[in-house]
User: Fold gamma-glutamylcyclotransferase from Folsomia candida.
Amino acid sequence: MSKATFLYFAYGSNLWSKRIHENNRTALMKAIGLLKDYKLEFGHMSQRWKGASANILPQPGSNVYGILWEICSSDLPNLDNQEGVADNIYERVELTVETLDGQHVPCMAYKLRKDTREQSTVEHGDKLLPSLRYKNVIIQGAKEHNLPEEYITYLENIPDNGYNGVVDVNIPLNL
Assistant:
């Protein structure tokens, strides 16, 4: 990896090649990554996805699998835009993930800003739920890149809000 590129850890919709390449055509899949002592949650209602969007939160003993993408630095503004950085929804963070062969790799990821992370409210039921459409995009990416079967099962069992219609991104309806 040169200084003209960076490593990005994707754990949400950008797990799927079709999704990441919509705005970041230079993305190259480098490895499966494991973010230890973090949990996956859905913490912000997304108009784009018609449900809650993914986030990572520190939690000892939990793990989040994802994909390490090597991306040209010239695509960073595209990725920031896709992740809502200018809208103050997500922020870039530096993390270290472990590859399946045991390497510890520094990378960049996005997490919800503390002031945009929503707590469970009566309005959203017991918890914020992703749309079925969004959840299926995440699962599609997990399957495409052969994430561990137990993690795919975990993703499949995440409750969703049932919405499987049109979303504000170019995602086919036949998922």
